[in-house]
Amino acid sequence: MIKRKKIILPLGVLLVASLAAFVVMATAPEIERKSTATELPALRVTNAMPKDIRLKIRSQGTVIPRTESTLVPEVSGPVVWISPALASGGFFEPGEPLLRIDARDYQTAVAQARAEVARAEGESEHAASELRRQEGLAREKATSSSQLSAAKRAARVSSAILEAAWATLYRSERDLERCELRAPFKGRVREENVDIGQFVSRGSPIATLYSTDFAEIRLPVADQQLAFIELERLDAENETRPKVILKANFAGREQSWEGEIVRTEGEIDSRSRMLHIVARVEDPYETQRKNTDGLELSPPLAVGLFVQAEIEGALAKNILTLPRAAIRDGNQIIVVDELDRIHLRNVDILRIDQEDVLLRVPIEDGERVGTSSLQWAVDGMQVIPISEAEKSRT
Description:
CATH 2.40.50.100, Elongation Factor Tu (Ef-tu), domain 3, 4 domains, rod-shaped, five-stranded mixed β-sheet, 394 residues, conserved putative lor/sdh protein from methanococcus maripaludis s2 fold, alpha+beta, 4 helices
């Protein structure tokens, strides 16, 4: 009996423990299984649409006049009249009188020169007549050779005196004309330092003038950008020269003017390695016209104004424009195939702007190109493409 208890008791304990373990396992909560699948990276994409693009070259410069000269009197004397246009900022037309010097002394000099011409003409006529008389007597052997020689010498001297008198008259008349100062071109006064009653001397500068028939702007261009400019068009007619748009903040708002590139300067700057090309705007001060309501349409392109320039460049074919973030390793882009796998493709970068990149790449219309960056990219890696068109709608 005791031996049977020793066998049954351990078996009972073992049975109870096994039953308890079964109950615990049966009522335990189920453990959630987590997926170990890798999350795919997202990539913004756009459909490639290569097209022909007229390249633009950006530069800047200061407006300068084509011609600038100093107004200098060629005669001396007191100033008796000054044109209202001869003031800083004043406009004048070609040949317009700007200043007059007292001409009375020069008028007297002209009268004296005319009188001297008349006297020399009389003496010359008398000497010529005497020479003809002596030559007639010489043919009749009625005069000496010394008298004939003296008559010839007197005729030559009187002729030279007459020529000198005429030269003095011409110079006196020119000096009289020079009492009135005129500009040979249409322009504007930069500065003047003369007043009525002031005595001015021959050769002393009294004003600085510049022309307004057209303005010029020297635009520095880096040597690598010269390939984008069709320099051969500079020798063509005006309608085919490269155009340029000039912009500047003026009168509280942004203004723009249109001009053309007319030439390049002769050498590259040794310090900046840039070549200056010259833009021209015809009649810059005539751009301030009135419309039918009497309102000013645009201000003049004033000398000294600093402008930003956008130069018309060459026509580039099959060019793709992408954001700068789309470029990897300096010369690669990401192309996404129909299975959403990426492929790295080398490109030829034409120009990098502030936000966009212009490039050439062997690509078909409609192929998907990545426009955002990836931390890492392996050829054949799968991504989740997000269309730029869908993103813009959301």
